[in-house]
Amino acid sequence: MFLLSQSNMTRNEKSIKKLLQLLKPLLKLYPGKILGVTTLGFLSSFLEGLGISLFIPLLESLDQTTAQLSSESPFLESLNQLFIDIPPNYRLLIICLCIFGSIFLKNCLTFANTFLSSWLEAHMSHRLRSEVFKQLLSVSQSFLDASQAGKLLNTLENHTWSVSETIELIVGLIINACTVFALSILLLLISWKLTLLVAVGLVLISFIIRQMSGLASKLGQQEVKVYDAIAIRMLEGFYGMRVIRAFGRESYEQERFDRASNQVRIITLKLAQLNGSIGPLSEILFVALFICILFFLQQNKFNISVLLSFLFILYRLQPHIQGLDSARVELVALTAAVEDVMSFLNRSDKPYIRSGRISFKGLKQAIVFKSVSFGYNPVEKPVLQDLSIHIPRGKTTALVGPSGAGKSTLIKLICRFYDVTEGEIYIDDYPLRQLDLASWRDRIAIVSQDAQIFSTTVYENIAYGRLDSTEDEITAAAIQANAHEFISKLPQGYNTMVGDQGLRLSGGQRQRIALSRAIVRNPEIFILDEATNALDSVSEGLIQEAISALSQNRTVIIVAHRLSTIEQANQIIVLQDGQVIEQGNLQHLLKLNGLFAKLYHLQYLSTRT
Ligand code: ATP
Q1: What is the whole-number distance in angstroms between the Cα of residue 406 and the centre of ligand 1?
Q2: Whose CA is closest to 364, among 287, 445, 427, 426?
Q3: What is the pTM (predicted TM-score) of this model?
Q4: Atom of ligand 1 lying closest to residue 409 CA
């Protein structure tokens, strides 16, 4: 039992040490402020203790018969000496003023400390949230692909707040520790014998509380897992709703969700019970300690003024020790969440797309793929294999091929969402990796099959393409994308809120807004990845005209399943299983009578019947 407790103790200490180690980069950001909180915490507690100690000369000046016990401690002796020369008529008033002065100063310092610690907590939490979001924006897409969306969301939403809670606890812990230190010094100065007795009692109480924090640590780790599990269930339930309903899997999903939710219930209840029991338990133990002290005092015949001051300081000390204990239990329970966020922030074990140094000034000749191979997963067969293509400037290049051939992957490589595994992509004479990423992407506009609409107005959704675009440019882009008419009919026109917190748009309407966003960017390289697949044939025809107009003197890359949309392309590249199997213009490919001709005739027949 003892050995078990010992191992529990070291595990808890290790947990907190690890926690502090994990948060070190964050704590190191504000060393001056942390020192300030520590100093103010110590000084305000010392002043409080001093104010209480001044009750000893106060009581002794009220009762002139009790002088002998003050001499038991040199500190009390010198405290009494301070007022001995003051005439008895004024002594009481002066001591009262000193008590008032120290308590007044103590409260001023406490106020300053509350302000400083809140500042520290708020700033550290803000820095942390900002770093987490920065990491999300900068980490390579391959890391995000490999992460479970629900778990990642839990890290970003819940665990980030847990770290803020941890910071708050640590700041509180520093203040509590300073108070305990300052008041303990005063207790020692008043009576070392009594303090020794109290210390033994406190060690015993602390030992019992530590056993509970061991349990909290285990529960904290389980809590992280069960919250991850429920976040995954919620997210999949939300995004997979149509499949769930279509396949009649409501009760199956409900059961899975209830199981995950029940686990959360069990763990959070256990943790709440454990955290809630610490306060009452330590209070009971403290009362027991007080009773022991009283017996000791009775045996040793202590002076009543010393006794009252000692007990009062001890009484003030108790909530701080209790605070230290419960903070320790809570901190241990939060370790797993902090570890999760810090591991997300760790840059050394994650892939990043590093920007090159050459600023991209504009395409002069072509985008060239030289023997490019690429795989999302290094242990699996590459998705693109030994691909060599030439995408000339100012022309329209179409990518066609069966589903899964690698068309969208090729587009992602051009945007440099991923780096090629083998070979090189050249932009004129420079490898794409050597180009400054921002200046390269600045010249590209992409409209993909899943047109992303943000929760804001239609206007801002279009202006996202170029933040400084004018109202006229936005309207012109919407007209070109055949979106102006439907936008004008919306309740507040361009100022209508759309997306999650606004009006829901149809697939075709979303695509037209996404297209307007790309048009307003006025890009040099225009990429359309199945950008018109949700449109009816009339809208598609109109947009085709707009795209043709936009294609003048612009490099356009189109991915399309509907082959009618790419008939005007200058070159068509046919992909199959990650390789180029045919290449040329429409007439050339039809003459070849290969895969493209087969697909083309099949679609032509299906539109006629
Ligand atoms: P479609 O016409 O159906 O959109 P596509 O030709 O655009 O297909 P890609 O989306 O490029 O095909 O996918 C090519 C292959 O890469 C597929 O086998 C697909 O499963 C795989 N793939 C696509 N995205 C990822 C990813 N993020 N992680 C792992 N594999 C992926």
Answers
A1: 6
A2: 427
A3: 0.75
A4: 11
